[in-house]
Amino acid sequence: MDNPLVQPDPGLFIWTIVTFLVLLALLAKFAWRPLLQALETRQQAIRKALDDAQKAKQELERLNAESAQIIARSRVEADAIISQSRSDGDRLREEIRQKARAEADHIVKSAERQIQLETSRALEQIRHEAVELSVMIASKIIQRNLTREDNERLIDEALRQVSSRPQSAIRNPQ
Question: What is the C-alpha to C-alpha distance for residues 84 and 73, in angstroms, rounded to an integer?
Fold first, then answer.
């Protein structure tokens, strides 16, 4: 049982080697170089993509750091604004208190002046009435009727004496 495929044939062997070498040369020239170039191009594209990803990662980290700084600055500024607002509120509250106190003092002084004026008027009226009463009593005592002009003259004199009396009493205490 001799199988012709199993028996070595030197011609077939040489042709097989030649065909293999020709096919290898053709593959090397037309297939391997473009395939290797495509692999090299793909490898470069992958490297570039990895480098871009690394740059993007670094940029993202930088942006994260910047945003953290911005947030920290914003918090500091917000705290400063809140603190300033509180101090402004305290200052405004104190100004309002001072204005209220000043206004209350002004009202009290005005009321005191008004009271003094009213007291002076009342005293003046009491003096006037006392003088009129004194004149009436004096005229009844001396049984003489005074004319209205005499009455007014006596009132004016009495008022001058009464108004000068407290001042002289203050100047010359005895």
Answer: 16
Least Cα distance to 160 among 117, 131, 126, 140 occurs for 131
For 37, 138, 153, 156, 170, the CA distances from 160, given in Å and listed in that order, are 132, 18, 11, 6, 16
Would you say 166 and 150 are in contact if contact means Cβ atoms under 8 Å apart?
no
Q: What is the pLDDT of residue 85?
A: 93
Q: What distance in Å separates the CA atoms of residue 22 and residue 155, rounded to the nearest whole number? A: 158
Give the chain's mean pLDDT: 84
What type of residue sits at position 122? Answer: A
Assigned token pair, 55: 């740059």
CA distance 113 to 126: 19
